[in-house]
Design goal:
six-stranded parallel beta sheet, two-stranded antiparallel ribbon, 10 helices
Amino acid sequence: MAVGNIVDSCGECAMCLAGQENFCHAFPTLTYGGTDRQDGSATLGAFSREYVVRDRFAYPLPAGLDPAAAAPLLCAGITVWEPLRALGVSPGTRVAVAGLGGLGHLAVKFAVALGAETTVLSRSADKADDARRLGAQGFVVSGDPEQMAGARDRFDVVIDTISAPHPLGPYLGLVAMDGTLSHLGHLGPVTVETMDLLVGRKKLSSAGSGGRPATAAMLEFCAAHGITADVEVLPSARVNEAFDRLRRNEAHYRFVLDMSDLD
């Protein structure tokens, strides 16, 4: 081990040794659109009937979880699970989830199961019924200035899953003193007014996917609480249809491709 660089003989960095390979200093190998570290080829994800994976990165599916509905847990699920656990969400924590999509609907399910007082923030009232179905106790229309003003400084944790560029100020305004806004959905640059953080000692954080220990713990939690993603399963031959519908924002809330038609 080269102690100065915290790298062992396998080339693993401190993040890998801590079970957080998703934060690898050399940048993780993405499952699709990435570069294979061995031969430099483009990674293509799991668009095949069978594929080979290192055993350390394979997880046994707990009994009782539908494989199709559990599949998004390994991406969308762990992405919201990590900040909820890192921020200590537990019974009595006041949590708001901004955006009720693939990430957001799982954040709501997790927060509710962790015992948090859970509210959904959405641009319109159209998703209020879905929010209640998922277990949320509150709903705030983010496009309504009066509702946003009424929710000011209310939440200990705000999980921001909105994928499009958007200002963070309105959501920091909802964070309570010493609370945290966890920005997960949009991966581009953001601008933050320091005063939005200063007044109330508010914090801005983020997270990306999850390491092996957290993923295993999440799957066990899901099995214990009956949590899976809301999915629509399509045969793999309809993958282009799935992408077209994604562009039209018609996913409710995740598409899963059934690869058995490749036999």
